[in-house]
Design goal:
It is built from two helices and 18 strands. By secondary structure, it is mainly beta. It has two domains: 40 residues, no CATH class; 152 residues, Sandwich (Jelly Rolls). Strands 5, 7, 11, 15, 16 and 18 form a six-stranded antiparallel sheet that branches. A hairpin with a 2-residue loop joins strand 2 and strand 3. The longest helix is centred in the first third of the chain and has 7 residues. The radius of gyration is 21 Å and the shape is globular. The two termini are 30 Å apart.
Length: 201
């Protein structure tokens, strides 16, 4: 059942209150059955419901000092951009480096899962592990230490703050996520989480 709502938008600028009014819109069954409030979900959560949200992961239970693990993310040459966040755990430390426009060959395709387990929608952004990467891995766009010192407590979990950490990946481009161990007997895991969306503009 469709219901019409007239939604006011309140904006405060430099101490002045400005009222902007949206046009009347048709909204489906979005009312909370307990409170009667209009139910709203974040945009990225909506992408899960629409079958456009995906994840892939990898785990290594024995990563040693200076050992490297590399992952390639390749975006399609379309306007369906990939909006990516990631989560990393390294029990005794690792260095993360992210490269853009990476030259590589080979690699093993990672299993990519749609977060809506009821759909068979296929992702267009692809991931590989253990590729052969050229000595110049592309343009270094980010680097940090993971699980070193007490600040991280062994992990870098930015999934809890997508708004501050989301990356909109460049289309038709290969990215290399490289982890290098800083000590022996390291246990590491990495989770890639993204949704694919085409802009209206």
């Amino acid at each position: 059942m469709l219901k019409k709502y007239f939604i006011p938008i309140l904006i405060i600028v430099m101490g002045f209150t400005i009222y902007l009014y949206a046009t009347t819109v048709d909204i489906g069954q979005t009312k909370d059955t307990v409170t009667g409030c209009l139910a709203i979900v974040p945009f990225e959560h909506k992408e899960i419901h629409e079958g456009n949200s995906y994840y892939a992961y990898d785990v290594d239970t024995d990563m040693d000092s200076t050992e490297q693990k590399q992952y390639i993310i390749t975006t399609p040459n379309t306007t369906a951009y990939a909006y990516l966040v990631y989560s990393i755990v390294a029990t005794v430390g690792a260095t993360l480096s992210i490269y853009e426009t990476t030259t590589y060959s080979g690699g093993t395709a990672m299993t990519e899962y749609c977060r809506d387990r009821n759909t068979t929608a296929a992702n267009t952004t692809t991931l590989k592990h253990t590729p052969t990467v050229a000595s110049v891995s592309g343009t270094l766009i980010y680097q940090e230490l993971i699980g070193v010192g007490t600040a991280y407590s062994g992990s870098k979990n930015i999934l809890i703050s997508r708004a501050d950490n989301e990356m909109v990946l460049k289309k038709n481009t290969a990215y290399c996520f490289e982890l290098e161990g800083t000590a022996d007997n390291n246990k590491v895991s990495i989770l890639f989480d993204w949704y694919e969306h085409s802009s209206l503009e």
